[in-house]
From TrEMBL:
Gene Ontology terms, MF aspect: pyrroloquinoline-quinone synthase activity; thiaminase activity
Subunit structure: Homotetramer.
Pathway annotation from the record: Cofactor biosynthesis; thiamine diphosphate biosynthesis; Cofactor biosynthesis; pyrroloquinoline quinone biosynthesis
Catalytic activity: 4-amino-5-aminomethyl-2-methylpyrimidine + H2O = 4-amino-5-hydroxymethyl-2-methylpyrimidine + NH4(+); thiamine + H2O = 5-(2-hydroxyethyl)-4-methylthiazole + 4-amino-5-hydroxymethyl-2-methylpyrimidine + H(+); 6-(2-amino-2-carboxyethyl)-7,8-dioxo-1,2,3,4,7,8-hexahydroquinoline-2,4-dicarboxylate + 3 O2 = pyrroloquinoline quinone + 2 H2O2 + 2 H2O + H(+)
Similarity-based family: Belongs to the TenA family. Belongs to the PqqC family.
Domain called Thiaminase-2/PQQC: residue spans: 13-222
GO process annotations (BP): pyrroloquinoline quinone biosynthetic process; thiamine biosynthetic process; thiamine diphosphate biosynthetic process
Name recorded for this polypeptide: Pyrroloquinoline-quinone synthase
Role according to the record: Ring cyclization and eight-electron oxidation of 3a-(2-amino-2-carboxyethyl)-4,5-dioxo-4,5,6,7,8,9-hexahydroquinoline-7,9-dicarboxylic-acid to PQQ.
EC category name: oxidoreductase
EC number of the protein: 1.3.3.11
C-alpha cells in the first residue's frame, strides 16, 4: 500500500490537473479570450454553457443529499441558492439568461435549448450522473475546477469589455458575482476533500474525479469547435 500524500503534495497534484487540462487551454476558449469569436460563435458558447449552468444546482442537490453533517449541508446549500435564486434575488441562472439577452439571444430561445448541441448535453449529463452515482468525496472533488475559475473569469470580464464591445454591459454581472462565490465554494470543497480523502487510494480517486470534470468542460468546447469551426467569420 502506498503512503498517503501530504496535504501539500495532494494539493499540488490537484492544481496540476488544472494547469494541464482546464478549459482555458482549449482552442475555442483561447479564441474567445483573444477576441476572435464571431457574434454567432460567442452566442453559441453562451447558449451551450446555459445547459451547464442549469444543471449545476441539480448536481449540487445530489451532492447535498449525501453530505453527512448538518454544518456541511448548510454551507453546500448556498450553492443551490446562488444559482436558483430566492425571493428578491434572482440568482445565477437568471443572470446567465441576461447574459444571453446581452448577446442578443432572446430569453425564449435560450430556455428552449434549441442551440444546445447533442455532445454538450451528453457531457453535462455525464457530470450530473457522476455526482449522482459516485461517493460524495469524489463528487465534491469534481467541483474543484472552481479553484481555477476565478482567475479565468476575472480575465473574461476584461476580455468581454475590451474585445467584444457589442455585448451589453449588464450581461457581465454573472461573472462579477462569481468572483466572490467561486473562491468560497472552492475553499469549502477543498476543505471537505482534504478532510475526507486520507488514504492514497482516496486521494488518487479525487484527482481522477477532477480530471474527469476537466474532460466534461473540454468536451463542451470540442462540440462547439466542431459545430462552429474557425474561419471566415471573425469579428
Ligand atoms: O466560466 C467558467 O469558466 C466557469 C467554470 C466553472 C468550472 O470550472 O467548472 C464553473 C463556472 N464558470 C461557474 O460559473 C459555476 O457556477 C460553476 C460551478 C461549478 C461546479 O462544478 O460546481 N463549476 C463552475
Amino acid at each position: 500500500m502506498s503512503q498517503p500524500w501530504s496535504n501539500d503534495e495532494f494539493l499540488m497534484r490537484l492544481r496540476r490537473i488544472g494547469e494541464q487540462r482546464y478549459h482555458d487551454k482549449h482552442p475555442y476558449h483561447i479564441r474567445m479570450h483573444e477576441g476572435k469569436l464571431s457574434p454567432e460563435q460567442l452566442r453559441a458558447w453562451v447558449a451551450n454553457r446555459f445547459y451547464y449552468q442549469q444543471n449545476i444546482p441539480v448536481k449540487d442537490a445530489l451532492i447535498l443529499a449525501k453530505l453527512p453533517t448538518r454544518e456541511d449541508r448548510r454551507r453546500w446549500l448556498q450553492r443551490i441558492v446562488d444559482h436558483d435564486g430566492r425571493e428578491g434575488d434572482e440568482g445565477g441562472i437568471e443572470a446567465w439568461i441576461r447574459l444571453g439577452e446581452a448577446v442578443d439571444i432572446p430569453r425564449e430561445d435560450l430556455l428552449s435549448e434549441r442551440l444546445v448541441l447533442p455532445a454538450v448535453r451528453f457531457a453535462v449529463d455525464a457530470y450530473v450522473n457522476f455526482c449522482r452515482l459516485q461517493p460524495w468525496p469524489e463528487a465534491v472533488a469534481s467541483s474543484l475546477t472552481e479553484l481555477f475559475a476565478p482567475t479565468l473569469v476575472s480575465r473574461r470580464i476584461v476580455v468581454f469589455e475590451d474585445l467584444y464591445p457589442w455585448i451589453r454591459p449588464q450581461g457581465l454581472d454573472y461573472f462579477r458575482t462569481r468572483l466572490h462565490q467561486a473562491p468560497r465554494d472552492a475553499d469549502h470543497g477543498l476543505e471537505l476533500v482534504l478532510r475526507k480523502c486520507c488514504t492514497r487510494r482516496e486521494q488518487e480517486r479525487a484527482v481522477t474525479a477532477l480530471s474527469f470534470k476537466c474532460d466534461v468542460l473540454w468536451s463542451l468546447l470540442d462540440a462547439l469547435q466542431l459545430a462552429y469551426p474557425d474561419g471566415e467569420s471573425c469579428v
